[in-house]
Amino acid sequence: MGTDRRVMAKIILLNKPFRVLSQFTDSEGRETLAHYLRAPGFRAAGRLDYDSEGLLLLTDNGSLQQRIANPANKLWKTYLVQVEGDIDEAALARLRTGVILKDGATLPARASRIEPPALWPRLPPVRERQQIPDSWLELSIREGRNRQIRRMTAAVGFPTLRLVRVKIGDWTLAKLQPGEYIQQEVHVPAATPKSRHSKTRGQRK
Questions:
Q1: Any residues with CB less than 8 A from the CB of 96 and at least 6 apart, and which?
Q2: pLDDT tens digits, the chain, 205 residues: what are they?
Q3: CA-wise closest residue to 160 among 91, 84, 90
């Protein structure tokens, strides 16, 4: 009978506020995660831009951090996106099939227009332009390029005004308000120890 080679890891789900860095220190004096929690030994699993809001995951387990952050694992990440303009089906269809960015084509996304969601007020608020409407969409991607969502919506003609991540894999923002967090425990596979019988220099197999 095989042994269950799993260990318990801790994970923190944080609602990162607007204009907060996804790290604990900053040489320029900007607000960081340290303003909201003390978590020695925890590191962010992936990043969320300074000017984006919502779900950020932190963990004390390196394997879990890599599983979440590594784009090769293709975890779906879902965002609520306020864009400038009245987004149409043609633009959504382009997002669903992939758009061309300077660093290449994106993978197909999940994109749908939604009613304005019931979110907390952003501080400072999004600047309103009376002559230009705005609209909201739910957008899910499986990549992690730099400022990818903003570049995608701009590429189809609808610049992003506000960006809130609400889900990573099976983890969701739920009812967490900006700056609030919860801690959970999850099972992860134990690291495989290196073999003592690895091949040495000059040794024949």
A1: 108, 109, 110, 111
A2: 455 677 889 999 999 999 999 999 999 999 999 999 999 999 999 989 999 999 999 999 999 999 898 888 889 999 999 999 999 999 999 999 999 999 999 999 999 999 999 999 998 999 877 788 999 999 999 998 999 999 999 999 999 999 999 999 999 999 999 999 999 998 888 766 554 444 444 434 3
A3: 84
Six token digits for residue 95: 């997002």
ω into residue 124 within 30 of 0, thus cis?
yes
Where in the sequence numbering do the catalytic residues fall?
49
Q: pTM here?
A: 0.88
For residues 75 and 170, what is the distance between their CA atoms, to the nearest angstrom?
Answer: 9
Q: How many residues does the chain have?
A: 205
